[in-house]
Amino acid sequence: MKTKFKDAEEAGEIDKIKQLIIDSFDLFKKEADLKAKNCLICGKKIGILTTSQRGAICKECWKSQPSRWQEDFKQSLNKRRYDITHNLIDFAKSKNYEYVLEGFLVPKYGSFEYMGGHPDFPDFRVVSLTDKSEGIVAFDENEEVVLFTIDWHKVTNISADTKRITKSSPGLATLGILAKRSDYAMVGAAMRKEEDLYFMNVGYESNDLQTVITFKGEKAREAAAFLISERARYVEKTPQFKAESSSPQTADDPIDQIKKLGELREAGLISQEEFEEKKKDLLSKI
After folding, report:
1. Is the pTM of this model over 0.70?
2. Which domains does the chain have, with CATH numbers?
3. Cα dist from 136 to 95, 132, 189, whole Å
4. Gap between the terminal Cα atoms of the chain
5. Per-residue pLDDT tens over the stretch 200-217
């Protein structure tokens, strides 16, 4: 805000300066509201606030909100986006949880290394991921810019896998060889460390092009499981998908559930033993 004031003063833009003053006052007013003594959702007196992460919201109202709303609220507070914070409060009052926060993206599982695969984005870089109605959005959280979106309808499958690598101490081993010290070389060879690398793979098909978009990160398995369920939730809302997937089976049909379990097994999210155990339990219900 200070930079905008300075730029406007140097340019002599009086109207812009007036608007910035109004915006600044509105910002401070909204920030003051978040430090109020009464819950902004139910109006109940809450006294001294126990956490800055939920602003002026009582524990009961906070706990009654879905996790997605809580995450968005924390993010908006951290970024001092009080306009969004108050929008979220309005959504909570009306119990509208199908909201869309335009231009405001919240990462679900932290940062991932984008390993390539998207036909329109060849650059390897660290990205944050979130889900929106149009697809999986990869964005730069620091620069607040969307890098690319993976359309739900072009996603063929989502899976996760783990690769174990072994790291040694080549520097110490090399030093031992050069110094003719076998003890250094032996210690260097012995200093090995195993590390697991986690990957999420998104199958992508568009205009006869089939590829795999890969992300590396500690939360790859959790993100894959989450996005599998989110894809089903988003895509089933479209008439085209409903027509293609219409069948007499219901969501509680054991056969349908076994198929979904098979998808989770193929994605590496459940083991063969877990699949067989659950399959046996579902078949007993037929």
Report:
1. no
2. 2-94 (no CATH), 111-231 (2.30.29.30), 247-286 (no CATH)
3. 25, 6, 43
4. 65
5. 999 999 888 899 999 999
